[in-house]
Structures are given as C-alpha cells and as structure tokens.
Amino acid sequence: MSALILLVFLGAATLAVPIAHALLIASMAAVATNDRIPADLLVQQMVAQVQSFPLIAIPFFMLTGSLMMGGKLGAALVGMLSALIGRFHGGPAQVGVMSSTVFGGVSGSAVADASAIGSLMIPWQKSLGYPPAFSAATLAASATIVILIPPSIPLILYAQTAGASVAALFVAGVLPGLLLCAGFLLVCWWSGRSRNFPRDTTPINWPEFRKNLRHSAPALMLPVLIVSLLRLGIVTPTEVSIISTLYALLISVVFYRDLSIRRLHEAVVDSGIATGVVLLVIMASASIGWLLTFDQLPSMVTQWIGQSVGEAWMVILIMNIVMLAIGMFIDLPAAVLLLTPVFLPLAQSIGMDPVQLGVMMVVNLAIGLYSPPVGTTLFITSELARVKVGQTVKELLPFYAIGFLVLALVSYVPASILR
Fold it and tell me: Is the pTM of this model over 0.90?
C-alpha cells in the first residue's frame, strides 16, 4: 500500500496537481484498493487532526502578520536599516537580510516575507545598480529565516504532529535563525567588497531616521514579547497568538493610525484563505500519515536503518539527505507533516531530542524553499527581479554553503539550539 501511495502521489505531483490535492488522491487510491480500511474511518482521521487547540494559533499569527505588514511598517523598517547599514560593502543587500529577520517576528511565513520584502527591496537595489539575480538570491535565502524566528508556522505544525512543546520549539529556533542571519550578512559583505557593488552613500537624514526608528519599534518588540511570555510560562502559544493579534490591532489603530475597515477586511480574508490552505494540507497529510502508519512503514524504516546503520551520526546524515531531497519537491508544511511520523521514532532510537529534530527538520526543509526545481521563495524573488531561475541559483551558491553549515551545527551540536 505504501508503494501505491508513493506512485500515485508522484504521478499527481508530476502533472502539477497541488500538493494537498495530490496527497488526497493518493490516500483515496490506497483506500479504494484495500478492503481493510473503511473510507469513513479515513475521513475521521483527517478531521481529528485539525480538531486541536494549538492549531488556533495559526490563523491569529497570520492575521498579526497581515495587519503589521500591510501598513507603514515596511517602508519605515527599510528606511531605518538603509540609513544604518546601507553605506557599507554589500549594505543594500544586508538591509534585505535584516528586514527578513525582523519580519520573521511578525509574519511567520517565508512566502509572505519573500513577497513583501522583495517587492520593496529588489526595485531599490536595482536602482542602485545591484545585479538583479543577486538581489533575488539574497531575498530568496533570507526569507527562510522567517520560519525559525517566532512565530513560526512550520514549528507549530511539527509540534502538533510530534507532541512537542511549541514554546520550547520557538525558543530553540531563535539561535539558528540568528546564525543564518549572521552568515547571510557575511555573504553580502564579502560579495559587495569582492565585486565592488555600489553603496548608498546618501548622508543620513537624522530626523527621518528617528521617525523610521519610532515606527519600527513596535514591530521590533513583537518577537521579544512572544518569546518572553512563552519563556516565562505566562501564556500558552495559542493565547500568545491572540495577544499578538490584539497588539497588532492596537498598534495599527493608535500608533500607525493606518487601519481602515477595508484594510482590516483584506487582512482577515487573506489570513482566512491562507489558513484554509494550511488546514487542507494538514488534513491531506494526516490521511497519508495514518495510512503509512497502518502499513507499519515508520516502524519498518526505523528497524531497517537500526540494523543497517550502527552509528548515530550516520543515521542523522541519512535523515538530512532524505529531508533535503523531499524539501526540493514538496512544500514545507506538507513535508513536515509527512516526515515527522517517520523520523520521530528513528530520532528517539538514537537519543535525539524531539525539539532538536524539529529545528533540524525546519532548517533542512528551509533550504528546499530556495532550491530548484520547485523552490517557492526562489521563484517568487526571481519573478520580482525578472531574471531566470538559473541565474538566481548561481548567485545562491554561497548562501547554500551557509545553510548547510547551520544545518550541520543544528544536527550534530545540540548546544546550538537554546533551551
């Protein structure tokens, strides 16, 4: 049955069927050819997967991002960072990396970050004389920092599937996210210096800088607020998601004064649509996960690798290779939901903490977001820069090196994640 599921899924994906629909088609094909599994039982498993209190955090965090990113924040943030680091080697590119890191504490979505920051940064960098492909590569890679800095939608999905603590995962994702940020900043500086990229040498307008700093401060405080409340155990992740939405509403009304009925309506609709897509992926992945478990695939994989590979480091290497391969073809949320039931028993068999596995999985699959053939952020930024994907991939090579270095640290050095 597992082989049939794989074949049908790959066939549907090859025909460009959306991932959630391809998963549903594969699960229905398995049920139709197996008289031991009632169809209504499969439906019950799908519905049960989304009847979870922690999942309520997803629409609220998405709504928070829509409210904060849809107003004056983006321009103020870019203006502040440009004044601070735009005059250094690779400074305009570093502004993009820093903007993505800060927006990570607001949106929680790499796709939203690539679209919002890319539409602001790429035209500005091109006007300065930056190679469009390099701008696209920088923003495609840095957008993935978003899914490690709290609030992270993929970490919430992993916690739901693995039974891990969302708060622990949020805290654990901070240091790898900052390491990626530092590494990407170094790549931008080195590229700017070695290739003599132009810099923004306009004198700092201090009154404008202070204005942008004041406008950016509320967004800079949001991730600190989220981590602090979770770390102190004051609220649950679901409660902090609601608090973050109320915070975004209050800031938009009182501080930015840019929240209209129309923008509120658009934010709610956009968040609702995005949540519906995520829930459909969850339900479809749950059906596949339950069928594979029914077929005893996770236990067979664990047993086979345990007998064939004796060293823990080799097991971790195999998991990373599989995740990298799958992350290049399947969207990150679906990959998390499909791989967690398979790799969690395997990680526990070698003594790996579930929190470490979750961060390792997200860092791994994040690389797939800017890797061909179907990297989401890769295609978004290439389209915004109006360059061929192959040109962007060539500029991404040093960013891949940083991604693999952070992945190795997270995989083999447990101290690289905060507890």
Answer: no
